[in-house]
Structures are given as structure tokens and as C-alpha cells.
Amino acid sequence: MGARLVLASASPRRLDLLAQSGITPDVVDPADIDETPHPSELPRRHALRLAQDKAALVAARHPDSFVLAADTVVGVGRRILPKTETEASARDCLKLLSGRSHRVFTGVCLVAPDGKSSTRVVEARVQVKRLSKDDLETYLASGEWQGKAGGYAIQGLASAYIPKITGSYTAIVGLPLAETVNLLAGAGWGAGYRAVSAP
Fold first, then answer.
1. Domain segments of the chain: what residues?
2. Which long-range contacts (CB under 8 A, 24 or more apart) does 94-99 make?
3. For residue range 39-98, what is the model confidence (pLDDT) as tens digits?
4. What confidence tens digit (pLDDT) does each residue in 128-159 have?
């Protein structure tokens, strides 16, 4: 029997995405870390660091397992938008995104049972139409923005406001499937894991 796969995330979206690829984690163990950006930290680096920090924290609790972690960051230029917890914050984000394109970065980190880690950062570009007052108020009333990076969920009602994306749709949702499956395969998960020593 191969080593267990632990998902270091509480996100139901990431579970659903893995299921689309026929992958079911043996354990779901969310990582509770401080997600405050470091001074001058850029969106890409922030996404990667959070994924690495989550994976490391959970890997320490699950030795001899594969631990998969990810984090999704919405960036406008050098600015990192928050995971919105208040309507006021969501309103500010949506007004900023209205009528312009922005980038979404999802960092993925896989820690293998031997402690070696592999990472990817997948970038996508999202175009948001110019939001009318009715668009804004309808979306805010839905509550869908709660806890979402940049104040929206592309897989929900916000899809009506997004005429174009460039790059990985699943990365925008929260986990780039092609890259994640490749990381797992490259590390030997699902094929009976055997640690391979470097020559």
C-alpha cells in the first residue's frame, strides 16, 4: 500500500477539483497559518510562500505521508488583494477589479514522505467587465465573496462578470489540476511510493 495523501486545506473547492481527477486524499488536515503578506512581497512570491508554509506545518504532523498544500492570491500590479471577510472589503476589491484585467497566482507545494518538496506557481489572467451598481449590489448580497481572494469566486455567480480568462481555470478556482497531477506523479504518489536516493 502506498503512502497516504494529506490535503493541507479546508477548501471544499480543492477537494472537488481533486475528485475531478479521480484523487481522494486519505486525510484532510487544514493548516492554520498567518497569511499576512511580508513587506514588499509580490503576489507570486506570496502564493508560493503560503503554500510552502502550509505544507511544512502539516507535513510535520504527518510523517511518512505525501502532503499537498496550495494558496491562491489575486494580484493587481504589485498589490495583493485580501481574502475578503467583510462586505466593505469585498466592495473595495470588486470596484478595483471592475473593467480591468488582473492576475491570479496559485502556489502548490507537495512534500513527499522523504521530506523532499516540489513546488509550482501557476499564473492566470482574468478580465472583469465594467460592473454596474446593480451588478455590484447583487453580488455583494449573495455573500459569495466571503473568504474569497479578491472578493469573488469565478466558479459561482461572478462567472457572469468575467468575459475572458487566459491560463488555467482550475488554478483560478484554487488548484491547477494538470500541474498538481504532474507533481504527484513525479513524486511517485499513486504508484507505490519508494524513496529514490540520488546517485
1. 5-187
2. 94/131, 94/136, 94/139, 94/140, 94/145, 94/151, 94/152, 95/131, 95/136, 97/128, 97/150, 97/151, 97/152, 98/128, 98/129, 98/130, 98/131, 98/136, 99/128, 99/129, 99/130, 99/131
3. 999 999 999 999 999 999 999 999 999 999 999 999 999 999 999 999 999 999 999 999
4. 999 999 999 999 999 999 999 999 999 999 99
Respond yes or no: is residue 71 known to be catalytic: yes
CATH of domain 5-187: 3.90.950.10
Separation of alpha carbons 67 and 55, rounded Å:
6
Enumerate residues 6+ apart whose C-beta is below 8 A from 119.
48, 51, 52, 107, 108, 109, 110
Active-site position among 71, 92, 114, 134: 71
